[in-house]
Amino acid sequence: MIFGKTLVVTGVSSGIGARTAELAVSLGADVIGIDMKEPAIASSNFIKGDLSNPAGIEAVVRQLPKRFDALLNIAGISGKVGTEATLAINFYGLRAFTEAVAPRIREGGAVVNVASIAGYGWRANLERAKAMVAEKGFPDIKAVMAKNGVSNEEGYPLSKELLLLWTQKAAHEPLFKEHGVRVNAVSPGPVETQILKEFRSVLGDEKVDSDISRVGRAATASDIAPVILFLASDGARWINGANIANDGGLEASINADVLGF
Ligand SMILES: NC(=O)c1ccc[n+]([C@@H]2O[C@H](COP(=O)([O-])OP(=O)(O)OC[C@H]3O[C@@H](n4cnc5c(N)ncnc54)[C@H](O)[C@@H]3O)[C@@H](O)[C@H]2O)c1
């Protein structure tokens, strides 16, 4: 159900994006990969670009075909470089890029956003998330942070909270809904990729090890890729505005603690 489709994959040069692209190609899809780093295996279908600012986004959009079937938003950073840069790539850049290319996605197509268990707090921090998602386009992120009392340490979880809220909103926005384009999210727990080392320094070993010990191991990119492709496929045609926890049971375990069951 992915055979013959054209998928645009961001973050294609490493980790989850690289594995997702490899699996998609093996299943007969065409992949157009985007990343700021070169991929390990050179590809004629690769666009080098920086999706964290309007000019970089525009340059990538210009090189994309007029029509494709799905956008897989996988590129992301850990938060180590501070909140402004993290929100720029993980949320505001992702959203600006998605809105720019939405009209090119064929009817019946999909957007898949890779969020995270780190965005679990979106309900607890709902008012802040609503205010920050309500900022249109690519805002002055420093000003948005000041207005919402955001610190320089909370960029990663905050970026994923905004992404989870926006995924649900976008599913009902005319830009997607009226064109038959579904918008969903996948939320991994810890995954053995480059970024996990940085999470250890940003979130602390204790938090990462506690998450891993709740479910027995960290995921590999191969645990995540098939679920991303499922959401992009026709098999998920009735799934819209959803977040799939793809974390070995981590969210269920945290829910049990937080909700007391
Ligand atoms: N690894 C984990 O533990 C984990 C857990 C939950 C969610 N995630 C999410 O999964 C996604 C993929 O992460 P990963 O684990 O594969 O990490 P990774 O570091 O291996 O890959 C991320 C890729 O995104 C690219 N990228 C970063 N900034 C970019 C930009 N401005 N423009 C274009 N490309 C850019 C990087 O060059 C890199 O190739 C991220 O959104 C991350 O937040 C990861």
TrEMBL record:
The keyword Oxidoreductase applies. Signal peptide: none annotated. It comes from the Bacteria. Gene3D superfamilies: NAD(P)-binding Rossmann-like Domain (3.40.50.720). Pfam families: adh_short, adh_short_C2. Transmembrane segments: none annotated. Its EC number is 1.1.1.194. InterPro entries: NAD(P)-bd_dom_sf, SDR_fam. Keywords: Oxidoreductase. GO terms for molecular function: coniferyl-alcohol dehydrogenase activity. This is Coniferyl-alcohol dehydrogenase. It comes from Rhizobium setariae. The lineage of its organism: Bacteria, Pseudomonadati, Pseudomonadota, Alphaproteobacteria, Hyphomicrobiales.
